[in-house]
Amino acid sequence: MPIDEIFTRGNLDWSHYLSALVLAMVRLSCMMVSAPFFSSEGIPKQIKAVFVFAVSVLLAPIFASLPMAQVEIGVLPLLGEVGAGLVFGFSLSMLNEVLLFAGQVLGVQFSFSLANLLDPNSEVQTPLLAQMFSLMGMTVLLTSGLDRTMLAAFIRSFAEAPLGGVFVSGQQAMTLVQMTSGVFFAALQLAAPALAATMLVEVAVAMVSKMSPQLPVMAITVPLKTITGYVILLGSLALWPRFIESHFSRLLDVAEGILRHAAGHA
Predict the structure, then answer these.
(1) In 3D, which of 190, 170, 173, 194 has the Cα closest to residue 182?
(2) Hey, is 5 helix, strand or coil?
(3) Containing H/E element for 222?
């Protein structure tokens, strides 16, 4: 084989690898921006950048050799990879929204509606219980190994939605919008035990106040609701791992399904 042909093939292979590397880094970077845990401000940006680069360098040859992979740098392929990463991360971030909304609902019932903290991720004021729920949910996610499951599922997504072959249409975007409606119902399910207990305390105090008008209702209701709510909340924490794992698995299936359909319409 002529030496010129060898160098020509080498240049083509190197160009093919660099194109796959760029596309993989774009998708992984967008996932790191939107996915739970990986998007946390507690992880330094330098570590995130090194992680994205290392994973892309190691796996780019595999991604480029997959069937139906279209390893070409262009506007549409880059936009497709951006959409794939954001869709995957945003779908799983719904779990954190469920925890935040459940904390907001219980914060009102626990009379903590004015106790707010600065969320380092969104940089906005969030209720105290919402922050606590988010931290506890993140703890369950890490101790259950769901962060590794999420990363493994994201890597598998390159087989179902190959590089350069993804196009997120309006139908897939509407699926994400419809998913947000489930945040309300899932949050109510998580907060239901403590919410029901605090409402029963309010009803009981109201009935007693009717029989004894001189009773200091406000001085009794607030501490009694808070204590009762915390006791019920502590008792219901045993159900949190199963609840979080179940909803995480459903969100992961939805994210993979959206990418699969997006690859089919590309």
Answers:
(1) 190
(2) helix
(3) helix 217-236
Phi-psi region of 102 (alpha: psi -120 to 50; beta: other; left: phi over 0): alpha
Rounded distance between C-alpha atoms, residue 254 and residue 247, angstroms: 11
Rounded to 5°, angle at Cα 50 from 164 and 64: 25
**What is the rounded CA–CA span in Å between residue 140 and residue 152?**
18
CA distances from 47 to 43, 120, 226 (A): 7, 17, 41
Q: Which residue, 179, 168, 169, is CA-closest to 83?
A: 168
**Do the beta carbons of residue 251 and residue 92 sit within 8 Å?**
yes
- DSSP letter assigned to residue 120: T
Task: Give the chain's domain count.
Answer: 1
CB-based contacts of 42, cutoff 8 Å, min separation 6: 120
Q: Give the tokens for residue 215.
A: 């009773």
- Predicted confidence (pLDDT) per residue in 134-186, tens digit: 888 888 888 888 888 888 888 888 888 888 888 877 777 777 777 887 888 88
Structure confidence at residue 265 (pLDDT): 54
* Contact call for residues 248 and 92 (beta carbons, < 8 A): yes
Instruction: Provide the domain limits for residue 66.
Output: 3-264
